[in-house]
UniProtKB/TrEMBL annotation, chains A, B:
It comes from the Eukaryota. SUPFAM superfamilies: SAICAR synthase-like. InterPro entries: IPK, IPK_sf. GO terms for cellular component: cytoplasm; nucleus. Belongs to the inositol phosphokinase (IPK) family. Keywords: ATP-binding, Kinase, Nucleotide-binding, Transferase. It catalyses: 1D-myo-inositol 1,3,4,6-tetrakisphosphate + ATP = 1D-myo-inositol 1,3,4,5,6-pentakisphosphate + ADP + H(+); 1D-myo-inositol 1,4,5-trisphosphate + 2 ATP = 1D-myo-inositol 1,3,4,5,6-pentakisphosphate + 2 ADP + 2 H(+). GO terms for biological process: inositol phosphate biosynthetic process. One of its GO terms (molecular function) is inositol tetrakisphosphate kinase activity. This is Inositol polyphosphate multikinase. It comes from Gossypium davidsonii (Davidson's cotton).
Length: 303, 303
C-alpha cells in the first residue's frame, strides 16, 4: 500500500491530485521521475554513485540507498510513471524533527541555460542562499504530544532571513521550542548537535570529504538533519542523522572540488557550532548560578 | 622619487598618461584612491582592519601594512590626488615570480546594484571564477637572466581555462618553465609550495581563519603568491609569501563566515596540493629509475 509521506517538509506533495513522492510500509520512498530530464539525471547519479569505488564507505552512509526505478501509478492519476525507489530515511524515526537545508551559495551551474541561471539567481538572492551559502527549504519540529509538529508554510520558509535561520537552528534543539524564538533554551544542543555521533561531527566528516573529492558537484542538493526529540529527552540512544538528497542537478566535478557546496557547508557548520558553544556557556552559567558544587559535563549538564 | 612599479601584474598601470599606483625607494606603494567611492572604501577597510583587535597577529602578516593616505601628483597628470600609502610587498624580492589570484566564485555582493552584479557575473562566468572559485588575474614568472620574465598579456590571462590554470600552477614552480607547459618538472614545488613555511601551509593557516572569522567578507580581493626563484635554486632561505590585496569591495561579515572566499581558497589549496603531491611522486619515480640506492627526501631530492 503506497501512501503520501507523513513527514515530507519540502518539494512537491502528492496531495490534491498533484504529482509527488509516495512511501510504503517497508521503508521505501518512491520519487516520480520528473519529465524534463531531471528525473533521469537523478537516476543516473544514483547509478553512478552506487558503483563508484572512489566514494568511501563512511561517506556513503550520508546518502539514501537506491533500489533502482519502478513503474507505478502516479499520485496525480496520470497513470503509470517511472519512480526512483529509495530508502525512506524518515521511516526509522518515530516523531522526527527534520530540517531540509539546501546547500551552496548558488543553486545554478555554469552549463545551465541563461534563463535557468537567471531564475535560480533571483531566488538565491531573495533567500539566504547568497548571503549564508545555504537556505532552509523546509522543516518540521516536533513539539510534544499535545502541540504536535510546527511546520511553517512554504511562503514563510522562503522568507526566512539570516536572523530567522539562526533562531530556528536554536529552536530546533530546544525543549521549550513552542514558547517562541527568543527564549529557546537549546537544552538538546549538546546531545543533538554535539557529541562524537552528533550533527556537528557528521558535518565535519562530510566537510573533510568535500575538501578532497573532485568527482561530483552537488547543485541545488539538500542536506536533511533529522532526529527524535522524544527519544533524546528520554535519554535513549537515538542518533541524530544527516542525509544528502535531491541529485537532479549533480554534474561531474572534472578534477575540481565542489567549492560552492563546501563553502555553504562550512557556513552551516559555523552556525551549528555557535549554537552548541552558546548552549555550553549558558549551562555553565546555570551551574554557577544554581550554586551547585558540581561541574558542568561535556553534554551541558551539571554534575 | 616616485616611479611606476616594475612588478605590477594586474590592475591599472601608471603608463601612457593613465592613472595607476607608484612606488618609492623606501618600500612604499602609493595607490590612487579611485574616485567612485572605491578608494575611500579601501582606505576605510585598512583603518578598520588595522585597529581591529579581533584579527590575530598570525593573520595580520598576510595583509600589507597601511601607512594612511597622502596627497600626491597623480600619474596621469591630473594634479594632486589622495593616494593610499601601503607597504610595497614586492620590494623585498629581487626577481620575484608573482601570481595574482582573485579568490571567490563570485566577485559581486548582495548589496551591490543590479547592473554591477550582472557585469561581474558575466565576467565570473567567462573566466574560471565560477568553475574554480578563483581566477588568475595576472602573473609574472622569472625564467632566468637571459629570458627574463614571462608575463602574459591581459587578454591571454582573461582567457585562461581550468586546464591553463593547472598548467600555470605547475609551470610557476618549475626549473624548465620556459620550455613549455607540457614538460614542467615542478622541481621547486617541494620548496615553494611545500615545507612548513611554504605556500600550502600559509594557505591552510589562512583557511583556518576563514572557517571562523565573521568580521569581513572579501569580495573581488586578490591573493598574491610571490617568491624568488633564483634564491630558491641557490638554496638560500628566501621564504615564499602570500599577501591579500585589493579591499575596495570588502563588506561587513555580520556574524556569517565568508563562505565565498573560503570555498575558492579551498579550491586553490586542492590545486596547489596536487602539484605538490605529483612532484613528490615523480621524484620518487626518478630515484627509482636512476637506480640510486638512496631514498627520496621530503623536498623531493634523492639522497
Amino acid at each position: 500500500m503506497l501512501k503520501v509521506p507523513e513527514h515530507q517538509v519540502a518539494g512537491h506533495l502528492a496531495i490534491d491530485g498533484k504529482l509527488g513522492p509516495l512511501v510504503d510500509d517497508s521503508g521505501r520512498f518512491y520519487k516520480p521521475l520528473q519529465g524534463d530530464g531531471r528525473g533521469n539525471k537523478e537516476l543516473a547519479f544514483y547509478e553512478s554513485f552506487s558503483s563508484d569505488t572512489r566514494v568511501p564507505d563512511h561517506i556513503r552512509k550520508y546518502f539514501p540507498v537506491c533500489y533502482g526505478s519502478q513503474l507505478l501509478e502516479a499520485s496525480n492519476g496520470s497513470g503509470l510513471l517511472h519512480h526512483l525507489v529509495l530508502q525512506d530515511i524518515v521511516s526509522s524515526h518515530r516523531n522526527p524533527s527534520i530540517m531540509d537545508v539546501k546547500i551552496g551559495s548558488r543553486t545554478w551551474y555554469p552549463e545551465a541555460s541563461d534563463n535557468y541561471i537567471q531564475k535560480c539567481l533571483e531566488k538565491d538572492r531573495r533567500t539566504t542562499t547568497v548571503s549564508l551559502g545555504f537556505r532552509i527549504a523546509g522543516l518540521q519540529l516536533y513539539e510534544g504530544k499535545e502541540s504536535g509538529y510546527w511546520r511553517p508554510g512554504r511562503k514563510e520558509v522562503q522568507s526566512f532571513t539570516v536572523y530567522n535561520v539562526r533562531s530556528i537552528l536554536r529552536r530546533f534543539v530546544s525543549s521549550n521550542s513552542s514558547i517562541g524564538n527568543e527564549n529557546s533554551d537549546c537544552s538538546f544542543a549538546p546531545s543533538i548537535y554535539g557529541g562524537s555521533a552528533g550533527i556537528l561531527e557528521q558535518l565535519l566528516e562530510l566537510k573533510a570529504w568535500f575538501e578532497d573529492q573532485t568527482i561530483y558537484h552537488f547543485h541545488s542538493c539538500s542536506l536533511l538533519i533529522l532526529f527524535d526529540k522524544e527519544s533524546v529527552s528520554k535519554g535513549s540512544a537515538s542518533v541524530p542523522e544527516i542525509k544528502l538528497i535531491d541529485f537532479a542537478h549533480v554534474v561531474e566535478g572534472k578534477g575540481v572540488i565542489d567549492h560552492n557546496f563546501l563553502g555553504g557547508l562550512c557556513s552551516l557548520i559555523k552556525f551549528v557550532s555557535e549554537v552548541l558553544s552558546d548552549s555550553k556557556e549558558s549551562s555553565i552559567k546555570d551551574c554557577v548560578e544554581s550554586e551547585k558544587p558540581g561541574i558542568c559535563t561535556d553534554n551541558g549538564n551539571c554534575q
